[in-house]
Write a sequence for this structure.
């Protein structure tokens, strides 16, 4: 059962990492405007024209 | 001479950020889709040094710019020219922060329960011989390490609420929850310390997790309900144009208007204060009185704040400040209604009243029973009492109402109905009287010309040509049926009609009965236009505001179950005609906004429960006073905000459907309470007898919660 001594802390650490990521997402406003974000993807990028010209 | 575009001054609301940029936060009204939002963003971001972001979900605009403070006003004036109304926001909403905090608490307790389950599984399913005491203790200590910070962080919403209630000499559901969580943690820690077998860390974390989900859903549903009175105030806080002594026009905030000032109202603008007209004109009074037709006003006539100028610019002498205006009275009534709204006690709170004493009494009986009568030591006796507290913790109760509400709300939303107040469905169940407004609610609010009898083509084109020359609503209804180009030489006469002088000197008129000197017309209160050529008998065209196609069916159905009343601000004759058409026995016409409120108030004082359906500013006070209120989405924003439910589909089917869904939801809620009660009846005696181990507690708790959630999910499937 010695494996527990390091497996448990590793598992907990992964859990804490997930929690931190979620807290970051919440704090950085990922859930602030779900409706807007869903629609923004349909919006043409204003810089499209320039980017295309640059690529030429 | 070109006059500069009037600019509203928002500089008082500017916040200067740490990096020296200016920031304004505003609510954008008139934004209906993401497209509008992005149009605003694109326009604003096109300027250099400007950063604009629109939150589509909350209809808010955040504008950040560097440099001159006055730039913001010009930018926002451009947004207003695009057709959006802006109102500044003072600070980030506190409810918003509360919701986010709850979400964080859910995340923490969810993390804790998930990880604790890993330890618990190992502890439950390994026998005494397969796991050594040292390993078990290690797992208990790990559990404690996870649980204790979780309790302190995620338990805070409950502790705070419980403490707040106790300090004011009340108890609520959070008191037993706080006691159970604290005691269970303490006893489990004690057990761990003494290397005992049973620790309830997993139960504590799961308890918090489940309860927080219910709390979060509840808070989310409640968030949408906001103060309608404040909104009405905001609408009236526009910028007014005032003519100064020297003839210059100055823009001032509308709350700075004082009696004696001369208000200048351009065509299409809203009148912002009660006053007296100094010239003649036409005003749209539909928002205030519910009348379909614009009213012609003469010099000396009284005009009210909220009316809209339909014709030539109006000069108005301000008679009252905004507080003293009719709108001010409506706002005062609505504020009173909103404060009195707390009278309704939600079913969950009613249960909480007897729940707390019963649970604590049971726990105490268990403890004393084991300790004194059973002769058990202090510590195991306390353990039994704690399991009673854990088992009775109202996870299922706490989830029953919010989940059913969220499900019903989602179902209604998909069918085009927005539930704005959390407990509207609960209140709907009690309804015995339904009060309808006429214009825009029972009717479409659009005037349609009745098919005229036998007209020759020449007369028809003559009428159409004259009608096309004016913007009067009745004339518009004519051109909607007979499209035509404006006839040359048509002259509008003083809001009474239009006239053409023919080449041979005879006149040809289209307008009101008085305009054509018609004295003996049928007296049926219908909307009418008269047409005549000099020397020929006058012709009468009638108009009506069409009823919704499904109105008759829905009203007939509602009449069998409820008392249905029609309350209209329109002329009695028109109200009577609509009532007769729909088979409504009880109707009142020419009811002004304050009397509408008073009549609803009287009904409620008489012990009735009233559902009010209306759409105008004149309904706003009545809507906020009614037990439950509904507005079509075509309604004014004020009415929509005062209403508990807003429906998007044209027609009245939504009213019947909401009532039906409310009945269904409450049935589900009651079933869920029944399930929770049944679970307690089985589990509590077991806990009191000392048979409940951490495994039993965890399984029964999640099982009852799943049952309740599953039961509520049935609302979605139907």
């Amino acid at each position: 059962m010695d494996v527990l001594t390091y497996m448990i802390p590793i598992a907990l650490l992964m859990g804490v990492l997930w929690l931190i990521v979620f807290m970051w997402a919440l704090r950085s406003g990922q859930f602030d405007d779900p409706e807007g974000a869903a629609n923004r993807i349909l919006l043409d990028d204003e810089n499209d024209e320039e980017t295309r010209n640059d690529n030429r | 001479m070109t006059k500069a575009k009037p600019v509203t001054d928002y500089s008082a609301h500017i916040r200067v950020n740490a990096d020296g940029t200016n920031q304004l936060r505003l609510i954008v009204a008139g934004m209906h889709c993401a497209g509008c939002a992005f149009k605003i963003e694109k326009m604003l971001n096109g300027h250099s040094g400007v950063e604009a972001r629109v939150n589509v979900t909350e209809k808010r605009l955040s504008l950040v710019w560097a440099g001159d403070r006055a730039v913001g006003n010009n930018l926002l004036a451009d947004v207003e020219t695009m057709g959006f109304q802006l109102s500044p926001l003072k600070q980030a909403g506190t409810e918003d922060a509360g919701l986010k905090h709850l979400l964080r608490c859910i995340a923490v307790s969810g993390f804790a329960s998930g990880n604790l389950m890993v330890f618990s599984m190992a502890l439950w399913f390994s026998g005494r011989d397969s796991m050594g005491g040292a390993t078990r203790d290690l797992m208990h200590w790990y559990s404690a390490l996870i649980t204790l910070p979780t309790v302190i962080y995620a338990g805070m919403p409950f502790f705070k609420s419980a403490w707040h209630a106790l300090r004011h000499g009340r108890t609520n559901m959070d008191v037993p929850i706080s006691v159970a969580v604290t005691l269970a943690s303490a006893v489990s820690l004690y057990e761990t310390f003494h290397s005992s077998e049973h620790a309830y860390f997993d139960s504590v974390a799961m308890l918090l997790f489940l309860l927080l989900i219910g709390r979060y859903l509840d808070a989310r549903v409640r968030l949408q309900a906001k103060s309608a009175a404040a909104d009405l105030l905001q609408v009236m806080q526009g910028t007014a144009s005032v003519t100064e002594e020297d003839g210059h026009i100055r823009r001032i905030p509308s709350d700075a208007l004082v009696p004696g000032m001369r208000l200048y109202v351009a065509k299409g603008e809203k009148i912002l204060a009660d006053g007296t007209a100094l010239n003649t004109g036409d005003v749209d009074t539909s928002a205030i009185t519910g009348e379909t037709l614009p009213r012609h006003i003469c010099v000396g006539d009284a005009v009210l704040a909220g009316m809209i100028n339909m014709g030539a610019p109006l000069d108005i002498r301000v008679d009252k400040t905004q507080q003293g205006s009719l709108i001010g009275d409506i706002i005062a009534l609505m504020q009173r209604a909103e404060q009195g709204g707390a009278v309704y006690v939600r079913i969950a709170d009613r249960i909480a009243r007897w729940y707390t004493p019963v649970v604590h009494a049971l726990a105490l009986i268990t403890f004393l029973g084991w300790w004194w009568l059973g002769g058990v030591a202090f510590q195991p006796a306390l353990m039994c009492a704690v399991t009673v507290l854990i088992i009775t913790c109202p996870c299922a109760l706490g989830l029953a109402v919010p989940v059913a509400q969220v499900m019903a709300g989602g179902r209604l939303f998909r069918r085009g109905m927005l539930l704005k107040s959390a407990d509207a469905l609960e209140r709907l169940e009690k309804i015995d009287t339904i009060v309808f407004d006429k214009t825009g609610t029972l009717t479409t609010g659009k005037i349609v010309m009745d098919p005229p009898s036998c007209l020759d083509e020449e007369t028809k084109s003559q009428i159409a040509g004259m009608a096309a020359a004016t913007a009067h609503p009745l004339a518009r209804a004519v051109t909607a049926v007979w499209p035509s180009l404006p006839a040359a030489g048509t002259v509008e006469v003083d809001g009474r009609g239009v006239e053409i002088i023919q080449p041979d000197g005879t006149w040809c008129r289209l307008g009101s009965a008085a305009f054509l000197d018609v004295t003996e017309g049928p007296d049926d209160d219908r909307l009418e236009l008269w047409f005549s050529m000099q020397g020929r008998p006058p012709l009468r065209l009638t108009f009506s505001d069409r009823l919704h196609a499904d109105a008759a069916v829905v009203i007939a159905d509602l009449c069998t179950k409820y008392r249905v009343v029609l309350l209209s601000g329109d002329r009695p004759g028109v109200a009577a005609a609509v009532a007769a058409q729909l088979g409504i026995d009880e109707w009142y016409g020419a009811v002004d906004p304050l009397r509408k409120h008073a009549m609803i108030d009287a009904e409620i004082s008489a012990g009735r429960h009233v559902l009010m359906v209306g759409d105008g500013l004149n309904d706003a006070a009545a809507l906020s006073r009614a037990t439950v209120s509904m507005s079509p989405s075509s309604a004014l924003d004020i009415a929509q905000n005062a209403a508990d439910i807003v429906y998007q589909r044209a027609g009245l089917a939504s009213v019947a459907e909401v009532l039906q869904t409310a009945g269904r939801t409450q049935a589900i809620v009651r079933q869920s309470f029944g399930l929770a009660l049944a679970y307690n009846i089985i589990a509590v005696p077991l806990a009191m007898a000392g048979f409940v181990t951490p495994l039993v507690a965890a399984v029964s708790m999640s099982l009852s919660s799943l049952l309740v959630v599953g039961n509520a999910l049935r609302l979605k499937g139907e």
User: Anything to note?
Assistant: Residues 9 and 33 of chain A are 36 Å apart (CA to CA). Residues 3-55 of chain A form one domain.
